């Protein structure tokens, strides 16, 4: 069951980017930054993979990811600002937001203050939820959005770069490593299963 869900999510990501290009990259990264666990670790590398074919430019993917993340962050910032943590704790469980995730983001924000947005955008898990404590703390919106954009551009560029390099060497790797395609799909599925399992476990624990 979980494998089917992850397969559908991965297929959704691939179809969206293939069909809508940069807009699809921006939309998917925006969804992730809106506290919905749609992993950028799949989104950006696949876009980078397509960049190796000449369809995208690497910087175009990075900027699209930055814009999408900034807009998604703005949404969750406003939710945190007007609804506060009680609202998020009450309804977040429906999109796999656990108190454990919120605690991680809160502690990170308390430790690094305004820079937490910039730093957090380049860290798994933290990047997805850091906008909520920023909104609850009501930090200044313009610097928040700027840090979010810059941090997300860097994060997206790094992931897309690896995807592009993989694409450039895809043919050689397929010839050298039989079943490599299957291995990559298997790794993606395992990552997705772990991602969902972790959120469900932390939600139940909380």
Which characteristics define this entry?
11 helices, 206 residues, 0% strand, mainly alpha, 82% helix
Task: Please describe what this structure looks like.
With 206 residues, the protein is mainly α. The chain has one domain. The chain has eleven helices and no strands. It is globular, with a radius of gyration of 17 Å. The two termini are 24 Å apart. The mean pLDDT is 76.
Report the portion of residues in β strands.
under 5%
| Euclidean distance between termini CA atoms | 24 Å
**Mean pLDDT, as a whole number?**
76
**Secondary structure: helix percent:** over 70%
Q: Could you outline the blueprint of secondary structure elements for this entry?
A:
Elements: H1 2-20, H2 22-33, H3 40-51, H4 58-91, H5 99-112, H6 115-120, H7 126-129, H8 131-137, H9 141-168, H10 170-176, H11 180-205
Helix pairs in contact: 1-2, 1-3, 1-11, 2-3, 2-4, 3-4, 3-9, 4-8, 4-9, 5-8
Summarize the structure.
The protein is mainly α. It has eleven helices and no strands.
């Amino acid at each position: 069951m979980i494998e089917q869900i992850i397969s559908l999510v991965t297929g959704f990501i691939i179809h969206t980017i293939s069909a809508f290009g940069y807009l699809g990259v921006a939309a998917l990264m925006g969804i992730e930054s809106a506290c919905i666990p749609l992993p950028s670790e799949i989104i950006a590398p696949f876009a980078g993979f397509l960049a190796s074919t000449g369809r995208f430019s690497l910087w175009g993917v990075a900027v699209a990811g930055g814009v999408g993340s900034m807009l998604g962050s703005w949404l969750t910032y406003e939710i945190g600002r007007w609804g506060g943590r009680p609202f998020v704790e009450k309804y977040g469980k429906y999109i796999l937001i656990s108190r454990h995730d919120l605690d991680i983001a809160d502690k990170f924000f308390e430790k690094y203050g305004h820079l937490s947005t910039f730093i957090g955008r380049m860290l798994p898990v933290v990047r997805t939820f850091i906008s909520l404590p920023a909104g609850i703390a009501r930090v200044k919106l313009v610097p928040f959005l700027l840090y979010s954009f810059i941090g997300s551009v860097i994060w997206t560029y790094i992931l897309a770069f690896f995807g592009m390099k993989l694409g450039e060497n895809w043919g050689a790797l397929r010839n050298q490593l039989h079943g490599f395609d299957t291995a990559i799909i298997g790794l993606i599925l395992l990552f997705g299963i772990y991602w969902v399992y972790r959120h469900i476990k932390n939600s139940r624990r909380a």
